[in-house]
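Chapter review. Work through the record for NAD(P)/FAD-dependent oxidoreductase before attempting the end-of-chapter questions.
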Amino acid sequence: MTDRYEVVVVGGGAAGLSAALVLGRARRQVLVVDAGEPRNAPAAHMQGYLSRDGMSPAEFLAEGRLEIQRYGVDLVRDRAVDVARDDADEFDVTLASGRSVHARRLVVATGLADELPSVPGVAERFGRDVLHCPYCHGWEVRDQAFGVLATSPMSVHQALIVTQWSKDVTLFLHTVAESELSDEDLRHLATAGVHVVPGEVAGLVIDDDRLTGVRLADGTAHVRDVLFVAPRAVPQTGLLEQLGAELRETPFGAYPVVDPTGLTTVPGVWAAGNAMGFAEQVVNAAAGGYRAGATINGELLMSDLESALHG
Ligand SMILES: Cc1cc2nc3c(=O)[nH]c(=O)nc-3n(C[C@H](O)[C@H](O)[C@H](O)COP(=O)(O)OP(=O)(O)OC[C@H]3O[C@@H](n4cnc5c(N)ncnc54)[C@H](O)[C@@H]3O)c2cc1C
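Structure tokens for NAD(P)/FAD-dependent oxidoreductase:
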């Protein structure tokens, strides 16, 4: 069975739902395909979204899904696995269930995956007391004993940033040799009061389901309440790559080249949210989705007017 939609939105996080909301309200026929694995699922609270600060991420998305359905948007729990552009520059999207849908325009809002350092316990505690983003969690853990797990010299920046939330910060060099840090790094760390500990981290110390320390390979343990880590960002750009979209390398992964509305280098295909950029927090992702949706509505209108005029 092939269903025809004006717009198919792949991904039902903040970016995709927001694109669908504006398109639904513009009376477009829209399908959202969502695999249901939003990036912030491990976190109990979503912070920094004006008027929604502290809301549960699951509740935020559940409300979003209700809102789009009010405007007749279809929503399916499925995964888009294949996409192809046809001769009319429109799109056939194949879902994991085997269903196939046709779209005149496509929004790719598939987010990114966090690849965590392979220290035992880190994945299990991610989003609780193993954290990556001080803007998301810093206030809640302010003034506690912070550790930062270095995985590259860029972790120096993370250690410096988190001193805004606690003056008790230890940088565990882990896989980074002290010689990889520049003199300027060392000066900044010393001036900010960051304690630097060389040696590989072997695991976490957990008491009563709470992080209480960090254990090094040499057996020494350091009392810490919170550990900041830097996951490797893996943007979910597979569908964009299938369509031949141009990507640009950044220190945080390869993201599509887009114009200010999120239009990729493939005509008719927009990207929004973390699939478009690393720094897209929930509020930015929602804004990007909205911008893409509104742009697509206008673009479809003009395209139909031109066809009516010129055939
Ligand atoms: C632990 C943690 C805590 C965070 N806390 C905050 C916070 O407090 N405040 C904040 O602003 N930001 C926070 N973030 C960042 C936040 O998660 C992102 O900004 C936000 O999720 C980006 O929204 P998005 O719509 O781009 O992607 P996502 O929310 O990740 O949504 C993408 C959706 O697309 C689906 N998908 C992927 N591929 C396919 C496919 N092929 N077919 C169908 N569906 C697909 C996924 O399953 C998912 O449901 C946090 C991140 C983490 C990891």
